[in-house]
Amino acid sequence: MKAINLIAIILFTIAGISCASNSETSAQTNLEELQFAKGDVNVTYLGNEGVLIAVKEKKVLIDGLHRKYLEEYAYPPDDLREKIEQAKGEFSGIDLVLVSHIHGDHFHPESVGKLLMNERHVMLVSSPQVVESMESGFADFEKIKGKVNAVDFEIGKESDLPMGIFVRYLGLSHGSGRHASIQNLGHVVQVGSINFLHLGDADTSEENFEPFDLEKANIDVAFIPFWYLLDAKGREMVDRQFNPKRIIAVHVDVNEAERIKKDLQAADPRIRVFTEILETATF
Ligand SMILES: [Zn+2]
């Protein structure tokens, strides 16, 4: 082993990850086994449930291109959204775009279409419903249709589609009533040897997750809608179902962001809460 790699691994081992609390957790033990130097893993918050995951040269965008929808949902301001659409700066070289579902606080077909036009090697993989929305909502769809891929969607079932990055596409219910017809995909994304879990707006019922045995999926970072985490019962369910080493709370109501952040961190200091657009978690 090269000396410089050894030093990097030792430094990383000592430092743990920066978005964690200082308390000793079993999670740190597991992360020590990863062969990454500190700083190789970056997650950038893009409003609501939008995140850019970057591990070394690999980049995955989940629910990152959305526009103003309802007052309570954070969204990237115009200049930032245009930068992502144009694949500029830190948003160049995105390999994979994932969209959990068609709701406007997670997805805008024109914005995703622009990114697919502007970034040469990017691919979109999502539900048939999102693909239909791209066809009807992006005028130049013909030019990008070769980059648009649908996976089967059925609640309780999962799909995969090899794209150079391993992703499990999970059919998760968005709930009953007006949301019953929404195809909501959860994702387990493996970048390098790190596993990220993103739930979209999955209904919180435990039966929704049971078919997938996610507690055995070795989840390093779970992006969890904040309402799952508000009470002890919900937090226990998150641990039981997902067994995540790190939790990042997302979909935080902008009008109550400070209170939610304070409450969640008081309840469990392992929870990181994303509230500021472009804030990052670096491991
Ligand atoms: Zn939704």
Characterize this entry briefly.
The chain has 283 residues and is of the alpha/beta class. The chain has helices at 3-15, 26-32, 78-85, 109-118, 128-137, 141-144, 232-242, 257-267, and strands spanning 41-45, 51-55, 58-62, 96-98, 123-126, 148-150, 158-159, 166-172, 184-191, 194-198, 221-225, 246-250, 271-273, 280-282.
Describe the protein's topology.
Layout: H1 3-15, H2 26-32, E1 41-45, E2 51-55, E3 58-62, H3 78-85, E4 96-98, H4 109-118, E5 123-126, H5 128-137, H6 141-144, E6 148-150, E7 158-159, E8 166-172, E9 184-191, E10 194-198, E11 221-225, H7 232-242, E12 246-250, H8 257-267, E13 271-273, E14 280-282
Parallel strand pairs: 3-4, 4-5, 5-6, 10-11, 11-12, 12-13
Antiparallel strand pairs: 1-2, 1-14, 2-3, 7-8, 8-9, 9-10
Bound molecules: zinc ion (ZN).
